[in-house]
Structures are given as structure tokens and as C-alpha cells.
Amino acid sequence: MPDTPTLRQGSPAKRAAIVRAALEVFVRDGYTRASVDAIAREAAVSKRTIYDYYGDKERLFLSALAETREAQEADFRRLLDRTLPGTTSRDELAVALTAFGRAFATEIARSAERAAVMRLLIAEAAHFPSLVRPDPEGRPVQRALAERLAELGERGLLEVPDPAEAAEFLGLLVTGRVDYRSWYGAVPLADGEIERLVEGGVRVFLRAYRQGS
Amino acid sequence: MPDTPTLRQGSPAKRAAIVRAALEVFVRDGYTRASVDAIAREAAVSKRTIYDYYGDKERLFLSALAETREAQEADFRRLLDRTLPGTTSRDELAVALTAFGRAFATEIARSAERAAVMRLLIAEAAHFPSLVRPDPEGRPVQRALAERLAELGERGLLEVPDPAEAAEFLGLLVTGRVDYRSWYGAVPLADGEIERLVEGGVRVFLRAYRQGS
DNA sequence: GCGACACTACACCGTGCAGTGTAGAAGCGC
DNA sequence: GCGCTTCTACACTGCACGGTGTAGTGTCGC
User: Fold this and answer.
1) Which tens digits make up the pLDDT trace of A102-154?
2) CATH number at residue A87
3) What pLDDT, on the 0 to 100 scale, is given for residue A208?
4) Same domain flag for B187 and B152
5) Among residues B131, B142, B133, B130, which one has the least CA distance to residue B104?
6) Do B117 and B180 lie in a common domain?
7) Which residues of A are less than 8 Å from B163 in CB distance?
8) Mean pLDDT over each residue of chain A, to the nearest integer
9) Is A173–B168 a contact, with Cβ atoms under 8 angstroms apart?
10) Which of A23, A73, A135, B38 is least surrounded by CB atoms within 10 angstroms?
């Protein structure tokens, strides 16, 4: 019998500490450079415990990413409801879209975490096929945004024949230049710069998607 | 005296072979995973020779990237002149822009090299600060495209108050979704898919930048 | 007190890999 | 032929790191 190595269940608090430390170190150093010893130190936990909890470095990595992704998706939904509610009125539209874009991009560039995770995903996509989500429109973030845009379209504020596509472009226009210039968070950007880039992106989006353009 | 390790000049052909092999292995495996032995094997050269030529892994890496970048920039200029000449007429515009976008994105997604290099840069930007070009508008690719758009603007085909910004958006719209979905070349995309994504991007660009929109 | 479990500290193994040293073969100018 | 350089083949060092084994220290339920 190949006997499963029987990972330990352990306490949720400790799991959380490990996963948080792991993400921090992975994001900072990259997968290969990150050492399990460093993660253990960061989590204030013995290396042995990490192996008892997660088995090996790879599974720790995947767990950390999965957990973070879920948290980020939840964050995004909240952000979307806060800045771009379905009840947005016509003359609030540009302001609301800019607020949405700014909140989104600021989160990307300041918290550094979102973009950094993206950077990590891009770096490791080829080595961990399971990280690659097959259906691009299935990404919850895109889906939520598409639904919101569709609502705005039905109310006649925007002209969005293809909400999924429009959502992709909006995300791209708003965050693309920020990611491009900051190398997905590797290089810090000034706040004013971020704002300027975001506003430019929203302006282009509106020129392309405003009703009757 | 700290005596410089005196790198060997060597033959250009051998240098080229090493650099090409290095890029291939670095792109395939990433910087840390790539072993100098593997590069030597790939280049059909002894490991010692690589060290005599380049000193250490890091300098080899930087040389390979620098050389590739220059080549890609030259390629881009040629591509731009071929698909989007300054003499483009009004009714050729959409077709020419699409051709440009398609050629650009196809090169990105098919040759795999361009996107893969980008992936490598994103992955290593934080670890090799010298890779990060400080001036984002100084990237020759963006500059060349901006000049071309400015020409089209002056001839009244497009409305581009800020050509540098427009160039950035065009690049983003055309390649962004391809990069996004292919994880910068880590996942292959079907040709038809690429074409569809590119055309969508051009359509949005034109809606936003067409004269009198 | 006692057993069971969680955890740490620490020593340890194996391996992969950056980088070096060197002997010798191959080519070239003269 | 002779000396010089280039290059290879190969052995070797040092080190970092993934992963394991284990003895010992709490800590909790009973």
C-alpha cells in the first residue's frame, strides 16, 4: 500500500499564519528562490510543522495561491458594489467608473498584493498548469463586472452588445497601463500617476462604449 | 589589485549560439530553474566556454535579454512599416490597423518568443532592477507607434490629441487580451481566437479614436 | 498523574547547481 | 616545427535547499 502521508489537520490560526507567510515570501522571492525555511521563519513556525500541514513546497504554494485568489475575488465584488452600483445614474456614470477604476488600480498598485500575485501567476503559469484557469470568461472578477455593465446597458447608459468583452476591455484599459508601467507591482508608482492612468483608461472606455457614440 | 577576470572576446558566431541557447532555456525554465549546464548543452558548447565568455549566470542572462530586446525592437519597426505605413488612406485605415494588430499579436502568440520574453521580464523585474526601463514612453516600440499615429492624426484620419497615450492604448487593446488569456505565451491560443481578440481590440480603438466620434 | 497529541529544535541526508581548475586536443600564424 | 590561443572534457568544491527523523517540551482531556 502506498499509504497516504497523512497530513495533519492542525489549527486554522496556524494554517492561516503559514499561508500568509508563504504568500509573502513567494511573492517577494518567486517560487524557486523562496525557501521553506524562510517561510517558517516568517510564520514563526517550525519547518517541520509546515511539512506536517502541507506535505511539500508545491502544495503549500498552490494552497497559498488558491486561498488568496478566493479572498481577492470576494474583495473585488465588494469593491464593485461600493463604487459602481447597478443604480448608478447617467450623470454619475463617468465619476463612478473612474472611482471604480481608481479603487481597482490603487488596490493593484498600492496593496501590491494583487498585482504581485498576478506577477507570480504569470511567472509560474508554465510550470504549474493547474494554476491556469481554462475558461477566461469564467474568472469571477470578469463575470461580476460583465453583469454590472450589462445592467448599465439595459438601462441605456452604455452601449454594450457584448458585456463580457466590454468587461475585459474595461479591466484592461483601467489596469493595463498601471500593470505595464509598474511591472505588475515590481516597481512602485506615484499615486498621482496611477490616478492619471486610470482616468485616461476610463475616458477611452467611455468614448468607445458611451451610448450613441 | 582586484584584477578584472578578463572575459574572452571569442567569436561572434559562438557568442550568438550561446545567447540564443541561453534565451531559449531561460524562457522555458525561468532564471533560477535554468542551469548553465543545460544552456551549454543546448548551445553545443562547453560550460567553461560560457564562463569564459560571460563571467557568470547573471551577466549571461542580462546579455541574452538585451540582445533579444534590440532584435525585437528592430522587428517591430519593420512590422509597423509593412502593415501601417504613414501613407495609409482613410478607407484602408481599419483594415490596416487590423493587419497591424494581427501581425503584432500573432508574433506575440505564435513565435511565443516575444510574449515569453515579456513573461520572463515580469517574473524577474523585481530581482534585476536594471531590466526595468525607467521611462515608459521611452520604449522604442511605443515611440515608433506614437509617431505613426501622430501622422495619421495630422492627416485627419484619427483624433489623437496625445499620440503617446493613444499608442499605449492601441498596444494594450490589441495585445492585452491575447497576453491575458495566454498568460504571456505560457498557454497556446488558437489562431482564430487570436484574430478575433485582435479585431475586437482594433474595433474599440477605432470607436474611441476615429475622427469625429 | 497519564496518555495522546501538537509543536519545536536540531541534526541530518541527498541532490542539484554555480563556479573553478586543469590537462590536453585542435587550429592558426609564422 | 613552435608557440599561442581557443575550446572541450571532466573532475571537483562549496553551498543552498527540499525533505526527513527524532528527542524533548508543552498542553489538553480525563
Assistant:
1) 787 767 656 678 888 999 999 999 999 998 876 766 788 889 999 999 998 99
2) 1.10.357.10
3) 95
4) yes
5) B142
6) yes
7) none
8) 88
9) no
10) A135
Cite the DSSP H helix spans in chain A.
12-29, 36-43, 47-54, 57-83, 93-109, 113-124, 140-154, 163-182, 191-209
Chain A residues contacting B, CB < 8 Å? Answer: 28, 30, 32-33, 119, 121-123, 125-127, 132, 136, 165, 168-169, 172-173, 176-177, 180-181, 183-184, 186-187, 200-201, 204-205, 207-209, 213
Note whether B76 and B173 are same-domain residues: yes
Q: Which CATH number covers residue B48?
A: 1.10.10.60
Q: How many residues does chain A have?
A: 213
Q: Cβ neighbours of residue B73 under 8 Å, at least 6 residues apart?
A: B140, B141
At B149, is the secondary structure helix, strand, or coil? helix
pLDDT (0 to 100) of residue A103: 83
- Separation between the CA of A116 and the C1’ of C6 (whole angstroms): 34
Instruction: Supply the Cα-derived Rg of chain B in whole angstroms.
Output: 20
Residues 6 or more apart whose CB falls under 8 angstroms from that of B96 comprise: B83, B84, B85, B88
Which of A174, A179, A176 has the alpha carbon at shortest distance from A200? A174
| Burial of B89 per CB tally in 10 Å (0-12, 13-18, 19+) | exposed
Q: Which residues pair with B210 in a beta bridge?
A: B158
Extract the residue ranges of chain A whose pLDDT is less than 70.
1-5, 106, 108-111, 134, 136-137, 212-213
Range of the domain at A48: 1-55
